[in-house]
């Protein structure tokens, strides 16, 4: 498919299924801002195979910043367009208010009760 821009903002999305963007190899702009997303697993949108993507808008969602989101800060440094504001964590409490792009992989970890040591 030759789709270059996909705007899914303001759709009350709560999740994105793995493979949703699999056939969109020419996608340059993906807009997921202003939804109800809390996680975005790397399997949904792997960095590999996305050489054309240059805008990835995910602000104004309720991001749960934990181990499942470890891949995202690196991706955001490549793809992020902050028109409208940065992607901000709403949970867990210790990361609420932090921008995703500012977090390290070490900060994005399992909750203490489920952490493997």
Description:
The chain has 1 helix and 5 strands; from the N terminus they run ββββαβ. The model has no long low-confidence stretch (mean pLDDT 84). The strands form 2 sheets. A 3-stranded parallel β-sheet has the order 1-2-3, with no helix packed on it. The chain is 7% helix and 12% strand. With 117 residues, the chain is mostly loops. It has a single domain (1-117), classed as Alpha-Beta Horseshoe (Leucine-rich repeat, LRR (right-handed beta-alpha superhelix)).
Give structural attributes.
two-stranded parallel sheet, three-stranded parallel sheet, 117 residues, little secondary structure, 12% strand, Leucine-rich repeat, LRR (right-handed beta-alpha superhelix)
Number of contiguous helices: 1
Q: What does the oligomeric state look like here?
A: single chain
Q: Can you say what the CATH homologous superfamily is? A: Ribonuclease Inhibitor
Compute the average pLDDT.
84
Q: What percentage of residues falls in helices of 4 or more residues?
A: under 10%
According to CATH, what is the class?
A: Alpha Beta
Question: Care to give the gist of this entry?
Answer:
With 117 residues, this protein is largely without helices or strands.
